[in-house]
Amino acid sequence: MNAPLRKSRPYIFWGQTQSLCETCLKLVPTKIQICGNEVWYEKRCREHGVQSTLVSTDAAYWRRCKDFIKPGDRPLQFQQRTEFGCPYDCGLCPDHEQHSCLALIEITEHCNLTCPVCFAESSPARTRFTPLATVEKMLDALVASEGEPDLVQISGGEPTLHPDFFEILDAVRARPIRHVMINTNGLRIAREKDFVARLAENKRGLEVYLQFDSLQRDALVNLRGADLRKIRQQALENLEHFGISTTLVATIKRGVNDAEIGDIVRHALTWKCVRGVTLQPVQDAGRNENFDKTTDRIMLSEIRRRVVETGAFSDKDMIPLPCNPESISIGYGLRNGEKVLPLTSLLQHEQLVAVMPNTISPEKYPMLREKFQEKFLDLFSLSSGPLNTSERVCELLCCLPSFEVPQGLTYENVFRVTIVQFLDRFNFCVGNVKRSCIHFVTEQGAIIPFDTYNLFYRNGAIGRIRAELEGQTYREARQSEEAPQ
């Protein structure tokens, strides 16, 4: 027999999605390929050819994320009808699969920094502040969509510079919003102790989301354009003095500050006021100076590996967040000083993985397991904050017969590490963006996923895209009418 031997492809064809051409940003058919322990997108644009892009360096974890997918929670109302298809109808449209776990309200374009990485492209040169009345309408639009929004993040620009900042905070308090975060670079918090004291008067249910990218000068200059080490130190001292719950948030860029992830986590644990760390791979959107895909991109999987290397959380402790598992990984623990006891290390993880994806059919599981599942999912929601986290921890631990709940457990005993990977032109996936639960509320009352807002809506590109789609539809209709019968 001299028949030629067939050759296997050098990858596993996992499936198909739609991503973006990295040149023209048009939706293109995309193969999902698993090569060894890596996951790649192979995109095919009719105009710009084939593009291969790495999206995960941990195929085993990437596959595991699929097991954490559960039915999404629909908002109470949608703001936009579905016409062009995802991602061109954001607002939210009925085709979106998840409500707003976290909603951002941007109250200004003004900032006292000009960061080389800023998805909002804020700067001192931009001087517009959103009027208080408009902010109230934005909040009302969110309440109409959510009923009782879980978590609102006041953002910008630098929101603490808004002349009506505390009136805006009062407007949030006047509505049934469970938890509010202030997204800040910390300059005013570092320099004005009276401002922090007034913030402390509102600290119940409030958390400061403090920019904290590095402990090193060069990395801070690269990412923020200034050496902010003293500012960060003074800001944390003031927040510690007034006992204001704080999350440190770091934008991670390969070769700049990725080697510091362990140091940032350990540094966070030296402050009693810090409840956790959020790590965000740099998103290629807005102002992203001198960004190079080949050298600067870093993925959730790589950051997760760095977190595991710190020893604070093990591989089994850093789990996918069920509302959007491929984009968010979280580890939760109880802290005692600088020591962390991961909650997930107390659980039979194989059983956990087996239970969580089957919420659609609860009749298959015993009552105890249903109760455990419910409490676990509640705890690992982005909505867990100062008002409810300690209660949810106690409820979860009470489901474990072998674990005695510590006396006096409060939010100060909780520590979490969260990795949030936003989509851009490289890792965009229509299926993933439909599960996005982090949304912007616009001044017009639209509610738009973080990923698509920064890609298409913030810069107005969506108008051009929709016009092109309308023109394409018109041409196709004319061609159909003119075709011979």
Walk me through this protein's architecture:
It contains 16 helices and 18 strands. The protein has helices at 59-66, 132-146, 165-173, 187-191, 193-200, 217-224, 229-242, 261-268, 293-296, 300-310, 349-355, 367-379, 389-398, 430-434, 450-457, 461-482, and strands at residues 12-20, 27-35, 38-45, 49-56, 102-106, 117-118, 151-155, 179-184, 206-211, 246-252, 274-281, 287-288, 319-320, 328-336, 339-342, 414-420, 438-441, 447-449. The strands form three sheets. Strands 5, 7, 8, 9, 10, 11, 13, 14, 15, 16, 17 and 18 form a twelve-stranded mixed beta sheet that branches. A four-stranded antiparallel beta sheet has the order 1-2-3-4. The chain is globular.
What's the β-strand tally? 18
Alpha-beta content class? alpha/beta
What portion of the residues fall into strands of 2 or more residues?
Answer: 15-25%
Please tell me what the overall shape is: globular
Question: How would you sum up this structure in a few lines?
Answer:
By secondary structure, this protein is an alpha/beta fold. The protein has helices spanning 59-66, 132-146, 165-173, 187-191, 193-200, 217-224, 229-242, 261-268, 293-296, 300-310, 349-355, 367-379, 389-398, 430-434, 450-457, 461-482; strands spanning 12-20, 27-35, 38-45, 49-56, 102-106, 117-118, 151-155, 179-184, 206-211, 246-252, 274-281, 287-288, 319-320, 328-336, 339-342, 414-420, 438-441, 447-449. It is built from 16 helices and 18 strands.
